Structures are given as structure tokens and as C-alpha cells.
């Protein structure tokens, strides 16, 4: 209930204007994903040039969301810069929790991919700048599919993907057919699960924002997910999200992985091939859309210096800095944020995944539809969604682990979501 209650009090938050003097240090809360970790090394040059010390607080995704939400909602002031995404940015911007971003002309805001720019804005005002953006796609071991005599195509059917997973599943030799998110969290297991539900024709809410988790589409999707991962996934999948599966994949233990396109930057296995996300008859919403972005909490006394850093860290120049960095190179640049990145010859040569990633981003469909009356693909852009999604995430993890039946987990999810939405006054 933190987000909802804090939204009611958001008008009490006021922005403390930055003084003309430069800040001596900035405290930055980041998610502990690879590109963010790399930024700490690349940003040493920023400190050397500006004298601004950068204090990094690197947190696991779920912990980051909890701490950043709590601190920003209450005006706690722990951080000068925060990592947030498309679910939060428009809502927090409208509530006055974060500052609007205004950059110099040479920043070239029009170079930011429209899907990212729109998803991080409210009423045309940008409230968070994308550090990297992503959709989702299939990343698979073509050597294994070729050896098994199976193929995975763009926008393939879930049934064909399941058959491919079965064919390449070889646990006796440490290879699992499919590695998929199972760790509970609205941005962890539910990011992937929601795309499966979408592809089966389901949605989180109907046009009156009543939860539809007890629908036949949800039942079919979750039964399929539990069966696929239970039979052809690694043991303990209910504890795996992005970082855990990335480690498994790079250890050669995953035949296929359907997850964030950004993962392709960090795969260290030969013979990886890519395909657009599968579906069960409905391709709309079968691949998600997200950006990890940088925003300034309202109340930061270092807002001016924070804006300067964000402009640098999300610029064309930053992409060049990573591409030319001796520890990283063009295969490690943050992607999915700027159109110009995809036109760089060195990037094209190093990033064999680039075309598939851009196609996935361009095909993502966050707009509201008759089937899905809310903005967002793997989330709903309403203040209550993190609470709803987190409650359902626990139930889905219980179903995956076998602690609950799918039927019981869905019933409990529907009950929890209904209570949250009623209390919020939707009906």
C-alpha cells in the first residue's frame, strides 16, 4: 500500500532547487545488472574530468524497487539519482516525485527510440532518461537444435517451442531445455509470465479494472508455463531471474532462454541464435518493453549536478566511451535506447543480436487495446500494479515449486488482486 498512500501525499513534496555550485558527490542507486556495473568503471573518467565523486548503491532488482520506492515516496533523500523504469516514470512524474528532465540541444533527445521516450514521459515531458532499453526474445543454442533436428522460428508457436525444449533437454549432461524466470517479483517472474498470458489472449484487468486472473486464458497460460519449466527447466527455477539464468546460460546449462534482449550483450557461449518471442495465437504483448532509466528524486539538493551526470551517462558520447573502453568494447555498449547506436559500424560488427533486438523493440505494443485496457506490456501503468503484481508473483512461484496447485495459486491471486483494486476504489 506504500505507493498508493504516498501518491496521496505527493503534493506535499516540493523540489529543493540546486544551488549554483557543483555538487562534490552524488549518490546513485542502480540495479545490479551488467551494464550498470560497467558504468561504475566507465564513469571514473567523469569523476576525473568534473571532480564529482560518485557513490554507487548497487542492489538486486526487487530490493532496488522496494528501497527506491520507499525513499522517493517519502522524500527520504538517500539518493541523488535513481534507477527506475517505464512502470514508475510516468506515474512518479505526474505525482511530482521526480524532476522533469531538460537537456542541452546536443543531447539530441529525438535520437532516443520513440518507444523508450514515450514510455518514460508523462504528457510529453521526459521524467527519466533511458540508460538501456529492451524487449524480449528467444536466445537459443543453435548447435543443440541442429543436433536434435528441430528449429525455432520468429514468432513461433508455444507448442513448437515446447517441443524444441523437449528435444534438446539433456539433464544427464547438464543441459536444460528451457531456462525461464521463476523468482517472485512483479518485474521478475511476472515480467515473463505476463507475456505468456498475453499471448494466450489474457490480460490483468478488464475494462473496469477488475482482475481477470481467474480467466480460462490465465489458467491455460500458467498450466503451460509450469509444465514447460517443470519438465524441461533447471531444478529450483522458482529462485531464478535474470542474473541467475545468465550465469546458467554462460555455463552451458541452458538450451534456450526467453528473456530481455539486453542479455545478448553478456552471453559468452558460441553458436547463440535469436528469434522473436513465441505466442499461443496472440502475438500482441508476447514480447515486453522496458527501459532501465535514470531519474532525479524531487528534493535532491544536488539536482543540477545529477542532471549533468544523467545527460552524460545516457548520451551518444557515453556509448562511444564504452565502445572504445579497453575493458569493454562495442559488444558491451548499452543498447535499446538510441537509434544512432544501431548505425555504428563497429557496433553492428560486434553485436550479432542487434537486428533481432531492434525488431523486438519496434514490435512491442504497450498501448491500451480492447483486450488490454491499460498501457504497458508486462505491467499495467497504474499505481496499484506493483502491489498486485508482487502478490501474484508469490503465488506463481508457489505453483512452479509445487507448493500449490495452479488452480489454488490462481484463486489466491484473484482474491488478492481483487482486494487491492477494491480498496483502491476502482469499483
Automatic annotation (TrEMBL):
InterPro entries in the record, alphabetically? Bact_solute-bd_prot1, SBP
The identity of this protein, by name, is Bacterial extracellular solute-binding protein
Q: Which family does it belong to?
A: Belongs to the bacterial solute-binding protein 1 family.
Tell me which species this is from: Pelagimonas phthalicica
One Pfam family from the UniProt entry?
Answer: SBP_bac_1
**Coiled coil start-end:** none
Query: Which keywords fit this entry according to its UniProt record?
Result: Signal
Source organism, top-level taxon: Bacteria
As for subcellular location, the record says: Periplasm
Signal peptide range: 1-23
Instruction: Indicate yes or no for the key word Transport.
Output: no
Give any Gene Ontology cellular component: periplasmic space
Amino acid at each position: 500500500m506504500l505507493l498508493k498512500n504516498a501518491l496521496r501525499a505527493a503534493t506535499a513534496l516540493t523540489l529543493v532547487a540546486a544551488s549554483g555550485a557543483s555538487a562534490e558527490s552524488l549518490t546513485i542507486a542502480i540495479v545490479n545488472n551488467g551494464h550498470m556495473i560497467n558504468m561504475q568503471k566507465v564513469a571514473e573518467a567523469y569523476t576525473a574530468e568534473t571532480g564529482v565523486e560518485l557513490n554507487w548503491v548497487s542492489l538486486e532488482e526487487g530490493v532496488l524497487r522496494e528501497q527506491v520506492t520507499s525513499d522517493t515516496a517519502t522524500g527520504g533523500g538517500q539518493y541523488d539519482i535513481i534507477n527506475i523504469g517505464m512502470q514508475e516514470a510516468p506515474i512518479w512524474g505526474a505525482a511530482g516525485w521526480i524532476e522533469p528532465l531538460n537537456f542541452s540541444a546536443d543531447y539530441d533527445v529525438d535520437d532516443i527510440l520513440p518507444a523508450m521516450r514515450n514510455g518514460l514521459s508523462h504528457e510529453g515531458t521526459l521524467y527519466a532518461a533511458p540508460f538501456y532499453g529492451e524487449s524480449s526474445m528467444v536466445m537459443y543454442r543453435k548447435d543443440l537444435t541442429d543436433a536434435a533436428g528441430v528449429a525455432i522460428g520468429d514468432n513461433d508457436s508455444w507448442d513448437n517451442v515446447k517441443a524444441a525444449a523437449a528435444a534438446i533437454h539433456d539433464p544427464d549432461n547438464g543441459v536444460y531445455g528451457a531456462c525461464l524466470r521463476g523468482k517472485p517479483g512483479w518485474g521478475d517472474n511476472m515480467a515473463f509470465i505476463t507475456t505468456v498470458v498475453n499471448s494466450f489472449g489474457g490480460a490483468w484487468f478488464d475494462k473496469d479494472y477488475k482482475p481477470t486472473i481467474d480467466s480460462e486464458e490465465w489458467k491455460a497460460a500458467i498450466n503451460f508455463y509450469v509444465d514447460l519449466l517443470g519438465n524441461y527447466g533447471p531444478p529450483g527455477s522458482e529462485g531464478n531471474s535474470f542474473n541467475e539464468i545468465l550465469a546458467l546460460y554462460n555455463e552451458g546449462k541452458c538450451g534456450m532462454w526467453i528473456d530481455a534482449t539486453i542479455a545478448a550483450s553478456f552471453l559468452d557461449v558460441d553458436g547463440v541464435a535469436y528469434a522473436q518471442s513465441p505466442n499461443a495465437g496472440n502475438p500482441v504483448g508476447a514480447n515486453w518493453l522496458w527501459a532501465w532509466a535514470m531519474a532525479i528524486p524531487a528534493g535532491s539538493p544536488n539536482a543540477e549536478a545529477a542532471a549533468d551526470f544523467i545527460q552524460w551517462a545516457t548520451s551518444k558520447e557515453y556509448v562511444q566511451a564504452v565502445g572504445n573502453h579497453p575493458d569493454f568494447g562495442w559488444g558491451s555498449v548499452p543498447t535499446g535506447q538510441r537509434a544512432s547506436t544501431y548505425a555504428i559500424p563497429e557496433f553492428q560488427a560486434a553485436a550479432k543480436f542487434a537486428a533481432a533486438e531492434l525488431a523486438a523493440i519496434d514490435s512491442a505494443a504497450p498501448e491500451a487495446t480492447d483486450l488490454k485496457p491499460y498501457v504497458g506490456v508486462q505491467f499495467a501503468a497504474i499505481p496499484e500494479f506493483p502491489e498486485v503484481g508482487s502478490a501474484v508473483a508469490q503465488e506463481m512461484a508457489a505453483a512452479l515449486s509445487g507448493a500449490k496447485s495452479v488452480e489454488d495459486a490462481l484463486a489466491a491471486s484473484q482474491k488478492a488482486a481483487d482486494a487491492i483494486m477494491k480498496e483502491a476504489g476502482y469499483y
